[in-house]
Structures are given as C-alpha cells and as structure tokens.
Amino acid sequence: MSTPQATIEFEDIELPKKPIPARIWDLCKRQPLGAFGAVVVIAMIIMAVFANVVSPYDPERADFANMLTAPNIDYWLGTDAFGRDILTRIIYGARTALFVGFACAFVGATGGLVLGVASAYFGGIFDLIVQRIVDVVMAFPLIILALAVVATLGTGTENVIIAITIPFIPQCARVVRSNALAIREIPYVDAARALGFSDSRIILRHMVPNVMAPYLIMLTAFVGQAILLEASLSYLGMGVQEPTPAWGLMLQGGAEEFAESAPWVPIFPGLAITLAVFGFNLFGDAVRDLLDPKLRTR
Amino acid sequence: MYKYIIKRVLLAIPTLFGAALLVFFLLRAIPGDVCEIRLAGTGLYADPAEIELCRDKLGLNDPMIVQFWDFVSGYFTWDLGDSMWTGKPITFEIGLRFKLSLQIAIMATLVAIAIAIPLGIISAVKQDTWMDYAVRAFSIAGIAIPSFWLGIIIILGLLIVTQHWFGAPWMPPIDYVSPFEDPLRNMSQLIWPAVATGYRYSAVATRMTRSALLEVLREDYVRTARSKGLMERVIINRHALKNALLPVVTIIAIEFAFLIGGLVVTEQVFNLNGLGKLFVESVGAQDFNLTQQLVMLVVLIFVITNLVVDILYAWLDPRIRYS
Amino acid sequence: MKRFSPKLAAVAVLSCAFGLGVGGPAAAQERGGVLNFVVGSKIPSYDGHRETTFGMIHPIAPFYSLLIRVNPDNPQSATDFVCDLCEGSVPKPTEGGTKYTFKIRSGVKFHDGAPLSSADIKATYDKIIFPPEGVPSARKAFFKMVESVEAPDSTTVVFKLKFPSGAFIPALATPFNFVYSKKDLDAHGYEWHGKNINGSGPFVFVQHQPGSFVEGKRNGNYHHSGQPYLDGFKAISAPKMAIRLNAIRGDRAAIEFRGFPPKARDDLVNALGDKITVQESDWNCVLLSTPNQMREPFDDPRVRQALTLSVDRWAGSKYLSEIAIVKTVGGVVFPNHPLAANKDELTQLAGYWTDLNKSRARATQLLKQAGHSDLKFELNNRGVDQPYKVVGTWLIDQWRQAGLNVTQRVQPTPPFYATLRKKKDFDVSVDFNCQSVINPIADISKFLGSAGNNYGNYQDQVLEDIYNELLQTGDEAGQRTLIRKYEKRALDEMAHLGVTLWWYKINPHRSYVKGWKIAPSHYLNQQLDNVWLDKSLM
User: In whole angstroms, what is the distance from residue A36 CA to residue C517 CA?
Assistant: First the structure.
C-alpha cells in the first residue's frame, strides 16, 4: 500500500451504468463471499435496530424461577444463570457490538485520516513528532491502555470505545500517510500551491479524495476488529459490565463453569461473535478487493 | 546505507522514551496500588498503618520524578529492579516465562506458515473459483473465532472425547516442562495452543501470500515464462513464489514478534506460564515495576522487528534509502 | 431438583454422614504418593507474618508448624484447638485469664537440622506482635491484649495478657503464624523469610517455579509420629476457575482447596460418579452491601433500612446457592457459631423478616418518609465473578423489584479498593469480610466505623461502646447478649452495613484423596500432614 500505484481516483472504481438491482447482482457474482458478509452485516443491523421489537423478553430482568433452562419453545436458546433469555441478550448484544464496532471504526479511521493527511502534507518536524507518537501507540499493549481508560474513566460502553479507538488511529494514520505522501509528490499539488490555494483547500480538495480508498478499507476492517476486541475486553472484565447485554460478557465467568451441563450458555454467544466478525471481515475483504487496484482483476 | 541505519536507530530512541513515559504515567493514573491489593484485597483485616509501611518500603510514597528516575536509570546500570509483588528480580521473573513464550511463538509461527503458504498459493492460482472462496472463508473464520472461546472448547472437547473413547478423561498438562527434559509432555501441553494460535495468525499471511502472488503473476517475466510454454507448476515454484515471498516473510516476522508478548488471552485459557499470563497478573496486582518492564520488552521487540524489516527493505530497494 | 443426579445425592449424603468429613477410622492410612492440587491465586512473598492471601497459605503452609492449630481431624469445630508444637492440650489460662503457659515439644527439628526450642517461638511471636519499626506484620492488631511473650526455659513459653480475652486463643491458632527459627531471624534479619523457607512442618521445600508450581517432599523428622503420609505434594498455579475444574476432571490435580460453585460440583460428579467425593461447609466469609454515609441520602438511616428491607435473603439463599458460592442466611457472626443469632433472632431483624411483602412495603414507606421515593443510585462492585458479580446482579434485581433504580459499576480489583479506601466516591458498594480462624469477637469489628476495613464512613459511638464492653466480657452468655445488641444496632436500627449471604464452601475432589477434612475457611487445615492417597481408588 505504500507504493505510488495506490494513488487512484476514487471515481475509477465506479461500475458501468446499469439498473441498480442488476449492478448489485453483478457485484454479488463477482464477490460471493463479500455478498454473504453483507447479508450478515445487514441482518445484524436490523436485529440491533429493532431489538426491542424482535426480542421476546427483557434482557436485564432476572427470573430465578427459570434459571439455566435448556432451549425450548419458550426460550429458543435457553436461559442463563439468572434466568434471562439468551436469545434476547444476544439480540440486545448485537446493539452493543454494532455500536462499539461502528463508533470505534469511524472515529479511529477518521482520526487516522486527519492525522495521516496532515502529517504527510505538512511534513518536517510535525511529521516527525506525529510519527514518533504513532510508533509509541502502535507498539503499546492494548490491555494497558484499556485498563488505564477503564480505571480512570470507569467501565461502560463509551469508555470501551475510547480504549479500542486509541490504537486504531495510528494504524490508519500510518497507511493514509504513506498514500498521501505519494500524492504530495505529484505536480498538481505543487501547482495548486503555486497558484496560492490555501492549505485547507488543497488538503480537502486534492489530498483527501485521493486517500479515500485506504480510508474505507481501514474503516471496514476496523469494525470486525472492534467487535472482537470489545468481546475480549468484556471477557477479561475490562469492558462492558453487567447487567448490560454484551456477547463477551455472556461468555465470561459462569459460562465456562456451566460449559458442559448448560452448553447453550457459552455456545450461542460465541457463535454470535464468530458469525458477526466473520461477516464483517468478508465484507471488508470485498471492499478491499474493489478499492485496492493491486488486487483487482484486470 | 550506514547513514540510513544510524538514522533509523536514532529514531527508535524517542519511541522507547515515549513508551516509558506513557506506561509510567498510565499505570499511576490507575487508582489503587499493590499494597492495598496485597493487604486489603483478601477481605482480612487491613491495618492502614501496615499498608502505609508497605508503600514506604516499595518507594510508592517517593515523589514521581524520583520513581521515574529509578525506572529509567535502571537501563543504564543494568538493574531492572524487583517485582513489587514477589520481591524477586524482574530479570528472573521475565526470564523464567520467556522460554515458554518463545517456544509457543515459534510453534505457532510454524503452524501459521504451514497453513498460509499452501493455502495462499491455491487461492491465488485458483483465483475466483470455489476453491479460492473456500480457502478465504476458512482463513477468515480463524480471525473471527474468539481465542478465549476456542480454548475452552478445545479443552472441554478433549475431556469429553477422551472419556468417551478411552474411559478416562484427558487434558493437556497444566504445568510447563522444558522440551529438553520431557519432549512428549512438553508437546502434549503446547501443541493445542500452538495450533489454535497458528490457525488464527495464518489468516493475514494467507491473504498476503495470495495477493503478492497475484501481483507477481501479472509481471512481464511470468508472462514470458508462460509464453515459453513452461509448466504452470514450474512457473509458480521457480519464478513467482520466490519473488512474492518477501512481503509474506515480513508479515510473518512482524507477527512472530507480536506473538512473544501478545498471547494474553490464550495463555490464560490454557494455563500457560508465559509472558502474557505474567502480564495480566502484574497488571491485576498493580505491580508497577514488573508491568513497566514487560511493556518496555514488548515495545522493544516491536521496535527492533520493524527496524530490521525497514533496513532489509532499504537494502533491497535503494530508492527507500535516499528518499 | 432436576439438576441433582441420584449419583450426586448419594455422594453428598455420604459426606454428610461423617459430619461433612470423609475418611473412616484413623488406622487405614496408606503411605506414599504425591498429591497434586491447584491454587487459584498467586504467591507474594513466603513470609506468612506479613501476607494475607490463601495463594501463599496453600503452597507454603505445609512447610511450617504452628504453636497451636485448628484440630485437623475436626476442623468444623470453631472451638477445637490442638497443640502443634506444644505438648498436651491447649492450656487453660491462669491468673484470672491473663496468663497462658505452653509446654513445648522437645526433639523437634527445623529442616536445616537445628533444634526447635521455646526461644524460636518467642522470637516468632515477638516478630508478629511487637515487630520493630518498619517490619510489617499484617495481624498485629489480633494481639492487642498481649503484654509480653517470655521463654523462661527451653521448653516453656508464657504469654501474659493485659486483660482476659476470648479472642486470644483463636488468634494464636491463625494459620499465618509460621514458627521461624530464631537463628535465621538473628543471622539473616526480618526480610529473609520472604524469599527463603526453613520451617519444621511436615514437608520440606524442594522448588518453586514462580507462576507455575511449588513442590515439597516428605519431612522424615516430622514431630507428629508416622506423619506425613504423602511422599510429597505439588501445588500448581491455575488462576482460571475453568482450568482448575477441568484439571480435577482430567486428573491433572486431585483437589482444589478454596471452593467451586455448585454447578461445577454437579458437572464433576455427573462426569466421574464415585471417583469424586464432595465435601461442603459453611464458610467464614460474607459479602456485604455498604452504603456510603458521606453521601446523600445514605446518611439517613431510613434510606439504609429501606435498602436492607428490600432484599429477600431467604429466597436468595435458595436460588443463589444453585449458581454461586453463597448460601447461608446469617447475621454478623459466622452462622454455625454458638455466638451466632438463631433463626428466631434473625427474623426479628430488618431485612430478615419472613413476610417479604410487609418488608418491601415498609421499605417504600421509609423511603417516602425520607423524601426519596424515586431513589436512584449506583452499586460499586468488584470485577470478580464468584460471588461478587453474581451477588451484585442479584442485589440490583432485588432493589429493582422494590422500585429502586440501580445501576452497577464493576471495577477491576485495584480501582475497586481505591474507590473504597481512598476516593470514597461511591453510593453503595459490595463489601467483603473474610477471616481465617472463626473468632467472632474479632471478626465483627468489621462493623465498627473506626475499623481499618470499614468503608461506610460513619462514626457510631453507641456501637463502639457495645463493642468495648464485649471485649471485656469473659462469659459466653454475656458475650451473646452483647452481640445481639450490637447486631441489632449495626444491621437494623442504623443499618450501617447490609449482610447479604454467607459463603458456602464446596470442595469436590478425587475420591482417592483421604484424610483431608473441609474447614469453614480456605485458610485452615492446610498443613496436609494427615492427608493420604488411597491407591486402590486411583
């Protein structure tokens, strides 16, 4: 991604003009895995948005009369140790996962875009300092950052988002910078500057559009990563907290002890995480294939 | 070339210093300290005077600047200090775990290579066929499965399957023996986490192999070889693969470096006494000294790997040196 | 009870038949074998006098002897103490209860070969009770009544007390009071035992791989004749509960001495049948809910009473005992102790009434009187699953049922304790009292606003006065009356702290482990000198 070849016009990848359903169908044929991923992503979004409509129970209300019931007609995926419906908690968990996933990806990638472009455009001492900070954060173990954020700001969804976003920003900044650097060398940027255009105009009109491809690639890749990181942090006890429904949390503690006599407690949330991350990654790969010219079939 | 190397090495110094600064202040921003956990965390009586005494002895009541100087000056005197939890030297605590973490990293990397290279080649050669899709789905599934969940399933699966087949439930050993002492026992413990981790980390390398190979296959010399009528297998093995390997090797090297300190969750799940478990324990106990040195070790490994990769690239591609 | 298999019921009945112990007559012990066990916490230093964790007791206690200890063959009793290094039975006090004279066994040797005498015991207790400035001693406060420790001759140790106290003998039997050699203390100083081991216990230290295991081998010169039965032991570190559980199942370890949740017990018994024996006991640990009286409206006793009145402890005991390591409803004193409240006395206290509707109605009324009908607050909790998060989630549900709006803030251990001790920025917090030897008079000091481990931020002179009177009271009937008064004041009238449920210790282990009997604390009965392996069951 660091080679000058990556400097493409975003419009390059527009597909031939056809009716929209036909274009979607073409795309699905070219990217069947990506299409599958898109289906998962869309299903998850619908589930999350309509959680309160589609879920049969209250996700937080304990019901000790129905502790650890096996899947049956009333509780399709069974109940957990507090008698809460697992299907309901998975549906509401999708809300948590998606909120964390999109928020982290958007803030992380956009922060990286701003930092990367600025770093490439201004260069010099600014670039040097930014790059050293990027180095430090990228080398730094996530768990320490997460613990520090959670311990100083408190647990909760917003703070989990902060903890996960911080390492995303430098990852994206580095990729964007190397693309932006290549553009900066192209004569028209110099020409624009010679014409007396302001920095902000050059950056917004000429540089940002040209790094959209890596930006979007990073953005889609981050969603899946963020969902998995959120689950891992919750599992380690540093993420979202009870009684908020979250997939990683559902796998923690009791789930492992009950794994044999109540296998539905750990299995379904685990499958939910796997499927969601799988879907987002397939979708992200398809986006990468479409946007990255090196991988495109000619 | 030397100038480039020197420049790169000098640039690593601010990174290391920045990391030291960051870890030092982040840890101290977290409320609570090792003495409270040690004396109040068990629910027994907690005499405030005892806690204060413990803080005094560990230097936690010293001014921040003194504590920071103690930390940083250790690198010049070759004294990394003692763990605040056990009181043992940090070099001893880390050295003990390093062997296991290194072994796991090597094994997992071998597994990852064994999966990634053949699958990547298949995927590239059979681009956009069902085989390509199957390979990509398989390797992405590896990233998608949470490692903590996979670990639980592996152990429980082993217990249930062995009980069913052999009558007695079997699980991997939970304490480490050096491979030179008892190779069989060592392998029976480490093979499971190595396969689980290797599979997980093969995904990125598979993708890299695929895309690098695809790129090379479009190069002129491959076209020439094809037009000469050479067999496809020869083309791929002799010409294309060799040239596609560099980015693959790079990505594997970077992942290997990450694996040494990065198996936080896997080591927990399989009860491996490695750096990841030590890390979780020292963070949980607010053992500032040990956590600082572990973070610095991870950062150092990261910095050195990147340095080596950059220098290698510069050596191979003179344009980078002068830009 | 569909979850209880007939197999499990059989095993449970079996262990109950022996008063919650296993093992038959003492004659059948077999020699040999190595006991593998798993430990869920990590070892700080080896110095018992300064540490407070079972993570150190389980692997290190077998290397040391104590002056007196809880009877290893009857650890369920809260009052049955026997001599370890002393001779005969535990002495009765003389001079109006202020003088205890111990006869020390002769012929006992430390592992380095040096003979053990009364001078070593004096040096040990001087270190514990009167440590020099700057030398840590975690349980110094246990021994406030001690005036001096003397060793008039090589086989006699005399403790002189400032006043008679029922808390002295239990304090003496605390399992952390390892007896050190005076020679080591003189030659190496007070820090040496943090990193070195030289005791006179049933096992000799072999090696410690930090983070992995501790290994010990049989002490051939042990002073209890014929013991220990084991050739050695290996204490394997396994911080994750699921690993400890599976380790017993896969026979990587035979036993875990802290305790498993009830579901884990059921899974083990279901998988392995009579290869697993279950021992169960009440546990001298309890979770509390502590309102922060520095904060509005928790400075109002009516609000605090409403909190405790909203909680249905009797039903909670039934449900939580199926999923968590808690079970018994109790007051301030360990439930099985003679000084504890009986059920009639308990049901008089707020929050223990048998009529839940009446209790919740009273809570609503009190909140209304206090002007906080729509009370909303945050429960501070520790990020540990068993039993903190389970009990916390249950408490929140109870309060919600009573119409309160409660959220939870779960924190990792370091910030959790910083919140309680330093920052004090919480509304109500889950709190924890957990002691080793059952010593009610000392244990209930937790409820005093002045106690070092009390986080309610209050001063209650009435409660302090009752406690001081209790300290000076020698007879049990008098103690009992005062404790009831204390309990009523702390839990009902002022509702300073809410006792939730007492813990319940469940130790499922491989049936071939014999001789070990469950104690009401995971700190007790861990010297392993009377443990043996029945090889016919292996």
Answer: 58
The residue type at C125: Y
Closest CA to C122 of C91, C156, C168: C156
Of C251, C245, C247, C244, which Cα lies nearest the Cα of C267?
C245
pLDDT at residue C15, as a whole number:
42
Tokens of B303: 């910095």
Tell whether C261 is within 8 A of chain A (Cβ). yes
The single-letter code of the amino acid at C397 is D
Closest CB from A135, A148, A281 relative to B140: A281
Which amino acid belongs to residue B192?
A: W
Sheet arrangement for strand C146-153: C99-103, C156-161, C146-153
Cβ neighbours around C421 below 10 Å, total: 18
Minimal-distance CA residue of chain A relative to C379 = A242
CA-based nearest residue to C170, from C380, C470, C373, C436: C436
With 50 as the cut, is the pLDDT of residue A7 above it? no
- Between C186 and B259, where is the model more confident? C186
CB pairs under 8 A between A and C: 84
Angle between helices B275-284 and B288-316 (to 10 degrees): 140
d(CA C147, CA C126): 11
Phi, psi of C94 (to 5 degrees): -120, 180
Query: Nearest-CA residue of chain C relative to B34?
Result: C414
Which residues in chain B have their CB less than 8 angstroms from residue A256's CB?
Answer: 152
A252: closest CA of chain C, how far (Å): 8
Distance from CA of C411 to the nearest CA of A (A): 7
Closest in B27, B140, B303 to A285, CB measured: B140
Chain A residues within 8 A of C40 when measuring between CB atoms: none
Residues of chain B with CATH 1.10.3720.10: 94-316
Round to whole Å and give the CA distance between B217 and B240. 6
Domains parsed from chain A with CATH numbers:
77-297 (1.10.3720.10)
Task: List own/partner pairs for C107-115 with CB under 8 A and 24 or more apart.
Answer: C107/C223, C108/C65, C108/C200, C108/C223, C109/C200, C109/C221, C110/C181, C110/C198, C110/C199, C110/C200, C111/C63, C111/C197, C111/C198, C111/C199, C111/C200, C111/C204, C111/C205, C111/C219, C112/C181, C112/C198, C114/C181, C114/C183
Q: Which of A266, B175, A254 is nearest to C250 (CA)?
A: B175
What pTM value is reported for the model?
A: 0.89
Instruction: Please report, for residues C92, C93, C475, the alpha-carbon distance to residue C96 in angstroms, rounded to integers and kept in the order given.
Output: 10, 7, 13
* Amino acid at the residue B306: N
Q: What is the pLDDT of residues C61-85, one digit of tens each?
A: 999 999 999 999 999 998 899 999 9
pLDDT digits 0-9 by tens, C204-215: 999 999 999 999
| Pairing outcome for strands C255-256 and C34-39 | parallel
Q: What is the pLDDT of residues C4-42, one digit of tens each?
A: 444 444 344 334 434 344 444 445 789 999 999 999 998
Q: CA end-to-end span of chain C, whole Å?
A: 31
Alpha helices in C371-495 (DSSP H): 390-401, 413-418, 440-443, 461-471, 476-487
CA angle C185, C188, C190 (to 5 degrees): 55
Spatial separation of the C-alpha atoms in residues C132 and C36, rounded to whole Å: 38
Q: Domain B94-316 adopts which CATH fold? A: MetI-like fold (1.10.3720)
Distances (CA, A) of A60 to A83, A98, C396: 10, 19, 10
Structural domains of chain C sorted by starting position, each given as residue range(s) with its CATH number in brackets = 285-503 (3.10.105.10)
Q: Which residue in chain B is spatially nearest to A3 when comparing CA positions?
A: B320
Residue C68: both structure tokens together: 């007196």
Q: How many CB atoms lie within 10 A of CB C460?
A: 20
Q: Chain B contacts of C253, Cβ < 8 Å? A: 174
